[in-house]
Amino acid sequence: PVIGMLGLIEDIEHITTQWFKDEGEVIFLLGENDEQIGASEYLHTIYKQTRGEVPELDLELEHGLQKVLLAAITKGLVKSAHDCSEGGLAIALAEGCISNMDNQVGASVDVADDIRADCLLFGETQSRVVISCKIEDVRAVKEHFDNEGVPCTQIGVVGGQSLKINNLVDAGLDQLSDAYFNAMTRFMEKVG
């Protein structure tokens, strides 16, 4: 099946990209991590397995999170926003660092790690978004999401030339970019 979608952007000023913009931005995680690794890209890629329960999606929770996030964007509080979907939190953070090839910037992240490391990094728990904001907007961002009942946890800061996540990941932007942007070329050379 093929699904097509079309959206209407009422104000071009509200377009929010997934990449981090400037050193010193503060990074938040909206939603909560859970030990849900079933049917993940991680299991498929690393272990060559497609198994386990697909993470549950609470449509009301997702709708609420997206509505509150859109309101924060409209208020000008959010500089970047990227969902944690295929690949999980680590991939969302990596893409935030490298997806703007003209201005790549690293990040240092410290996330509560009371779940297994692989689930923390690569679990695909639904209804999670990584956002960033200016340091002067931290309080307003926290209050905005707290007032609406959306879990909002400050997890890091943008800056440097690498992505650091707890003591689990320390990868340079060059290494991440090479892996991300040259993966298809390498794959085609291997099979061709």
Tags for this entry?
single chain; 192 residues; alpha+beta; seven-stranded mixed beta sheet; 7 strands
**Largest beta-sheet details:** 7 strands, mixed
What's the total count of β strands? 7
This entry's quaternary arrangement is single chain
* Radius of gyration using CA atoms only: 17 Å
Please give the alpha-carbon distance between the first and last residues.
28 Å
- The proportion of residues in beta strands is 15-25%
Low-pLDDT stretches are none
Q: What structural class do helix, strand and pairing data support?
A: alpha+beta
- Sum up the overall morphology in one term: globular
Compute the number of helices: 7
Strands of the largest sheet, in order across it? Answer: 2-4-1-5-3-6-7
**What order do the SSEs take from the amino end to the carboxyl end, as H and E?**
EHHEHEHEHEEEHH
Mean pLDDT reading: 95
How much helical structure, as a percent, in the residues? Answer: 25-40%
